[in-house]
């Protein structure tokens, strides 16, 4: 379970994620000092803690280190959302409540994300299963039962071949 980053950890990681390259304590310090008064040793300690927690990796460069994010901000946000959802005693209700909090723009972004996660569909295929003219009572019955499998990966999973 990823623990949410503290305020200063988040300020440091925001820069590491934004710059998307190995950074030094000095670079982070100079950028943070535009917003607040902060000591070099404080930034060094925060980056060391982030390294110990697995958020950044580091490589020695002379007597200093260069730090680089282990994963993306998007992956961090997704892990937090997944944890929050997993802790619910009613995941479906938690999702409904979450969706109700979303703006129309956020809901559209969610729809787009679901389409991307589902992957491309074959041309002419719809998201709904086609009705089987031989058995309209069971539209789930499909051509795979007749040996006309379109997805070789699905065949491998089912048959082990």
What can you tell me about this protein's structure?
Residues 127-161 have low confidence and may be disordered. A two-stranded antiparallel sheet has the order 1-2. The two termini are 36 Å apart. With 161 residues, the chain is mostly helical. Helix 2 crosses helix 3. The chain has helices spanning 7-19, 25-32, 40-52, 73-86, 91-101, 104-118, 152-159; strands spanning 56-61, 64-69. Strand 1 (56-61) and strand 2 form a beta hairpin. The longest helix has 15 residues, at 104-118.
Indicate the topology.
Elements: H1 7-19, H2 25-32, H3 40-52, E1 56-61, E2 64-69, H4 73-86, H5 91-101, H6 104-118, H7 152-159
Helix pairs in contact: 2-3
Q: What's the SSE pattern?
A: HHHEEHHHH
Main sheet, how many strands, which sense, barrel? 2 strands, antiparallel
Helix content: 40-55%
Principal-axis shape: elongated
Enumerate how many helices there are, as a single number: 7
Query: Uncertain segments of ≥5 residues (pLDDT<50)?
Result: 127-161
Query: Structural class, from secondary structure content?
Result: mainly alpha
Average pLDDT score: 80
What percentage of amino acids are in beta strands? 5-15%
**Strand arrangement in the largest pleated sheet:** 1-2
Radius of gyration: 24 Å
């Amino acid at each position: 379970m990823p623990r949410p980053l503290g305020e200063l950890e988040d300020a440091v990681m925001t820069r590491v994620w934004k710059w998307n390259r190995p950074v030094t304590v000095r670079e982070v310090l100079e950028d943070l000092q535009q917003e607040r008064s902060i000591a070099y040793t404080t930034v060094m300690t925060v980056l060391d803690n982030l390294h110990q927690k697995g958020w950044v990796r580091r490589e020695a460069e002379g007597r200093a280190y260069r730090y680089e994010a282990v994963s993306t901000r998007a992956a961090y946000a997704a892990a937090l959302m997944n944890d929050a959802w997993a802790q619910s005693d009613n995941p479906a209700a938690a999702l409904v409540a979450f969706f109700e909090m979303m703006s129309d723009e956020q809901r559209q972004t969610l729809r787009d994300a679901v389409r991307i996660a589902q992957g491309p569909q074959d041309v002419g295929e719809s998201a709904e299963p086609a009705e089987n003219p031989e058995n309209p009572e069971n539209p789930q019955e499909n051509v795979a039962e007749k040996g006309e499998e379109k997805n070789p990966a699905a065949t491998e999973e089912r048959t082990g071949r």
